[in-house]
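Shipment paperwork, digital attachment
Item: protein structure file
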Amino acid sequence: MRQFFFFFLYLYIYTNFLGQVAAQNITLKIEAEKEVTSSFLDSLDITLKFEDYLSLKSEADSLSQKFQKSGFIDSRLISLEKQNDSIFVADYYLGNRWRDIEIHYSEKDFTYSELKKISNEVSDSIFKIPIQLAEVALLKLTRIKAEKGDPFSRIQLSEIERKDNSTLKANLNFTSTSQRKIDGIVVKGYEKFPKSFIKYYAGIKKGKVFNQKKIIEQNNTLNNLGFITSIKSPEALFKKDSTIVYLYFQKTNNNLFDGILGFATNEDTQKLEFNGYLNLELNNNLNYGEQLVINYKSDGREQQNLRVFTKLPYLFKTPLGVSLELEIFKRDSTFSTTHQQARLYYQASPKIDFYVGYKSYESNNLLDEVNASAFVEDYDSKFFLAGVHFSKFQNEKLFPIKTFAGLETEIGKRTNSSNEADQVRVSGVFSHIFNLNETNSFYIKNSTSFLSSPNYLTNELFRFGGINSIRGFRENSIDASLFSVLNTEYRYLLDRNTYVHSIIDIAYFENKIITIQEELFGFGVGLALNTKAGLFKFNIANGISKNQNIEFANTKIHILFITRF
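Attachment content:
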């Protein structure tokens, strides 16, 4: 019995001793023929503490490669010896340290501009880089070739020699595979996605050279459509004789509704009247990328406006699309104007589209008696129009459009009871966001329109003012034969869904009927909040003319709530 007792006691002591030894950390000590500083070892990301000998030996063996990449190309491990139970000493030969490497290249393989991305010293046949950056530089060059449709190319250095005590020289060898072109495009997740947007809106086409970087950018362009969300980065399947691009989308609801609707009884006629604002926008409900917009604005008897707009993109899988629009405007009991237009679009590139079209105006004088001072008459106008749009997007939820530019020209003729007049109408819009940093940005927008005519009628003039033009003034309260509005906002992001902004608007307009030229100013502040229910905007602004003092009574509050469904 005593023998069994001593046996188990011995076994207990032995196993505990081995456990302590196994748990004990061992240290690797680095020695060389020259001083090796701790900062240098830290820069190489070297581990010096280990739980077992095998891990320590593996690190000691790999250190030579790390030394070589840092410029000690002759380095090697001489010995690895145990100093005591917790310390092992690795003795290395380092030799001379080279700082730079001159690399000879062929201009047929790489351009000067490509090499400037990795080196500050580039000549016609040689570029120079720090030796510790050589591996990273070769990876960047490989990525450049991959972006140009050669993802399997090989780039390596050969004939490495010593030039002097600080510089090496080598040749850059480039082995190209056949350039890869896109043979097929597959959409996953949203199989009914209108494929024409891939070809014409994003520019991803069969037969084009495969460029991974560009594919990602084009995928982000599609993500800006609003009715899809990219759920995964695009991927490519490389087969022996084909390249298939996979896009991963999820359909999202992008219908929009906002507005306020009120009812009131006309004291004179005792009829029910509507007032308020309604906006309905339906997008891609038929999986065609189509759009239907219905706007209604009314402030009672003073002004009423109804607009219906629809757009059908990429007819018959071509870059051509059409839009139709009907707008009816009525000002109290003075006049009503109906305009209709049809446009044919051509998508020249993902950012630019051109269009031509036809527009007609029909206006009626609603006055019971002819009032010569009102300059309101019945008329018909017919115009041929042409225009261009440019859009550049950014990956920002609250401000998706970084730059927009649009120009439209209408040439036609107005006919009324007294004469015919040749007319030209020109409208232009430009906007841009200057991103100062992650939280601060500056927004600028200019809208300019003018009408050229031998004579003018009140009911054919442009109408502006309100939240979508110069803030601090009533909606469409200003008539002009020419106007130019400059909107500016300094924006500060409180978080990803909230921002505050300033309002500083400047406008100039002319009305050649009453021979007036005037400057207008709008000042205020605003708040925007993006919630799960929708986008809420609150603006408070005051509008004045050049020779007018600010009056608090003239302050306008603009409230806008946009919900998507």
